[in-house]
Structure formats: structure tokens, C-alpha cells
Amino acid sequence: MRISFADSRPAATHALAIVVAPAMIGGAGLSALPEPAQALARAAAQANRFDGENGAVVEFFGETDAAHRRLLLVGIGAKNDFERAGAALTAKLLTSGETNLVVDISAVAGDKPAEAAISLAFGAVLRSWRYDVYRTKLESKQRRSLEHITIVGGGSEAAELWKDREGVAEGVMFTRTLITEPANILYPESFVERCRPLADLGVKIEVLGRDAMAALGMGALLGVSQGSVREPQLLVMTWDGTDGASPPLALVGKGVTFDTGGISLKPPAGMEDMKWDMGGAGAVAGTMKALALRKAKAHVIGVCGLVENMPDGNAQRPGDVVTSMSGQTIEVINTDAEGRLVLCDALTWVQKTYNPKTIVDLATLTGAIIVTLGYEYGGMFSNDDGLAGELLAAGASVGDKLWRLPLGDPYDKLIDSPIADMKNVGPREGGSITAAQFLKRYIDDGVRWAHLDIAGMVWASKPGATWDKGATGYGVRLLDKFVADNFEQ
Ligand code: BES
Ligand code: MN
Ligand code: ZN
Description:
Blueprint: E1 2-6, E2 15-20, H1 35-47, E3 57-64, E4 67-75, H2 82-93, E5 100-104, H3 113-128, E6 148-152, H4 158-180, H5 188-195, E7 204-208, H6 210-215, H7 219-225, E8 233-240, E9 249-259, H8 279-293, E10 299-309, E11 320-323, E12 329-332, H9 339-354, E13 358-363, H10 368-373, E14 378-382, H11 385-398, E15 402-404, H12 409-412, E16 422-423, H13 431-440, E17 448-453, E18 459-460, E19 470-471, H14 476-486
Parallel strand pairs: 1-6, 2-4, 2-5, 5-6, 9-10, 9-13, 12-16, 13-17, 14-15
Antiparallel strand pairs: 3-4, 7-8, 8-10, 11-12, 14-17, 18-19
Helix pairs in contact: 2-3, 3-4, 4-8, 7-9, 8-14, 9-13, 11-14
This protein binds ligand BES, manganese (II) ion and zinc ion (ZN).
């Protein structure tokens, strides 16, 4: 989607959308339209019970700027939500046959017109993403038509401000693509290949393969991958916009490119969803792209633990005891509780190698988090109230919502093992908490750490504000904002 900003409406053929707030229909809010079209707009609004509600769209036809055109009214609601208005417009027009849209925000732009304009553009771009590469028989009516949106009324700063925000949109869409790719296409090595081009943006790429990880003693991660013919990878992406002046923030993602459950095999119904069990790693990769594109003045290391979890003659068995890189031993009770086994070695590695003072890990770790929070909030666990507050605030402000859940010794005891230092599952009750307690055993003293269990947030069965059904890109905006507010100089 091409986005432009302009001071006045262009002359060429286009659909025209007028952005309105509640209670504007009767007054001067439609003055961007000539008188006959204003009357039509009022009638269309009334017939559709439309009063500028956020994300509501009314479509009609009328004459403006010497042509008959498709005209739309879109609402920003009482909260002036331009992002959702932009998203609603693209959702409406994406496959409508219309190629050009002009959006006039003049009547509602307020005292921060550039902010309003880029929020609208951001929502429009995010909602326009779709992935049709495997659809060879798409009818022309199903193909996307909308190509270009021009926003009028954002002032002279909008185009400049948009450059950074567009970088964040690119990051979100990169994550969605990774998540959408099926597991025969996206596996540990091909995940790495997809990320290599980030080097052109200044991201340093480091990759550890099976032998390197074996030499480091990553027995937990390698145990998960040993049933798969795909070689596991530890992908490390470093963005330093501070020229070495700041200690790093570490982001660590679960990247299980397919989770069959292993020998503790999952039931068939819905197993195809487990292609997106790399959603944590996907969010980390998208965040690195966003940070690099907007040249963030921060030092961030993104680590992705990439493996495939398969049943096989060589797969690990329930009851196996593995030794993690930290030296701690784990009794693998359930081979389907594999994410924590991947993350624990990635966490140890990043602490030993880069000594970060703050770590945020993201993982589609437990079905239990969906039982707890549904599809509205990611679950957060943290050993630091300050860090938890920073993440909650970032999430609330961008709409990637988080809810904090408890940690504590009584939960920790539940994963003691009779044969090893710990087992990889606790009882059914509190399943997301015991998973977090497992990870906490790998965090060094003095390190601020948060674990985000995003199993309910990565994939949507119905369209949302800024996404269609499918991959949401959850986590990228959250982490980008978290970095911007707390780690940039
Ligand atoms: N990848 C799954 C968690 C998951 C489930 C993500 C549903 C998204 C949707 C994870 O590896 C897993 O299998 N967890 C088990 C843990 C259990 C064996 C303790 C689960 O949640 O059932
Ligand atoms: Mn699993
Ligand atoms: Zn999994």
C-alpha cells in the first residue's frame, strides 16, 4: 500500500473519505464536501444510523470535484481513534475495485494533525496486509484493488513522521508473514534465511547450528529437536543504535516452527495451528526489523530458539533426563512441554554471552493461558515491578494488551522432580504459572526479566481492529513502544 500526504485534494479519479467525530454530521463537519454531496452524506448517515462511531463506515455515491465518486464517511469516535478509522477504510475498500483513496481529515485533525494522519495511515496499512502467494486461482473480484491512499489535512510534518511509523508497520507485517508460512516452508534454517536481509539494515546476524549448540551443552533445546530432520538454529540479531554506549536489552523468542507434541503427540484436530508456535520468535524478528528501519537509538539483542518438535525413532521420550546449558538437569515428563526447554537454553546463552540487565521473552507457551485470559490479553510474568509496569504501559498504549499473573515459591515447588533438578511440567492447575516458574530458574540474580505467554494472541479466528483473520503480528508494536519509551537515548 502506497501512502502519500497532501495539502489539498488531488484531481485524479479516486474515492473520497471524510473523517468525522460524533455529533459532526449535522454541523460543519461535512464542509469538505460541496453542498449537494453534503445533503447526500447526511441522508446516508441517517439511513445507516451513523454518528461518527469509531471504525464505522458509510458508503454512498455523489458528485465532488467535478466527478461522480464513491464517497465514504468514517468515524473516529469519542476517543479520536484515527488508527481504527484508517483500518476500517481499507477493510471496506481493499477488494472493492477502487484503486485510489483520498482521506480528508481536515475537519477533525485537531492540534496534532500530523499524528492524526500517520495514525490513520498506520491503521490503513496494517489492515491491508494479506498473504496470497499460495492462491493461484484467485478470481479477479477477490484480488486486492486498493493501491494508494492520500491523506489530506495532516500538515507538513506528516510525511517525515510517517517514515518511522512505516518501519513499525513493516515489522508487524514481516512477523505476520513468518507466522503465516506453513512449516514445510518455514523451518529453522529457512526462518534464518528470511531474517538475513535484516543485515542490509544494519542488524548483525549470528547463527549457531546443531554442533555449536552441542559444544555449548544446550541439551534441553537439542533434546526437543532430535526427532526432526531439520537442523535447529539459534538466531541472534543485534541492533545497536547507540554505538556501544548502552548495555543491551535482550528479547528472546520461542521459535518452534512446528509443534506436533513429539512422542506426547497432540490430537489431530487443530494441529495445523502449531505452524504458528514460532510466534514469539516471529515477534522478536519483526521488532528487530522495526527498530532497524526507524534507526532506534537503542541497543537490543533478539534471540530466537528455532526447532521443530517431531515424533521419530530418534525423538526424546517421556522420562528422559536432559542437561541444560546452565548445568541444571530436567526430567522431560511431557515432550509437548517443549517451549520451555528451548527457551531455557536460549536464556542461559544470552546471559552468559551478552550480560543483559533486562530480558523479555515471548512464547506461545501454554494452552492454559488461553483458558485464563482468552484472546484479549497476553499473560505477563515478571520478577520486577518496574519492568512489569513499563510493559503494561507500552501494551496498553499500542493495543497489544498484557495482564500480569503471579509467580511464587509455592508454584515453583510444583516442578521439583524426584530424579532431576526439575521436571518440565507441573499439575494441570496453574499450567501457565508453572511454565513461567520453570523459566525463572534460568534467570540470573539481578536480571530484570519478564515472560510473555502469547499463545492466545498470535493468531485470530476472526478479523480485529487492524488485522484480518489469521496472523495478528502481536508483540511487535508492544516491544517497539517498550524500547522507544524506556531504552532510547
Ligand atoms: N505450543 C503449545 C502451546 C499452545 C497451545 C500454543 C495452543 C497455542 C495454542 C505448547 O508447546 C504446549 O503444547 N503446551 C502444553 C503444555 C502441557 C503439556 C504442560 C499445553 O499447553 O497443553
Ligand atoms: Mn507443545
Ligand atoms: Zn509448543
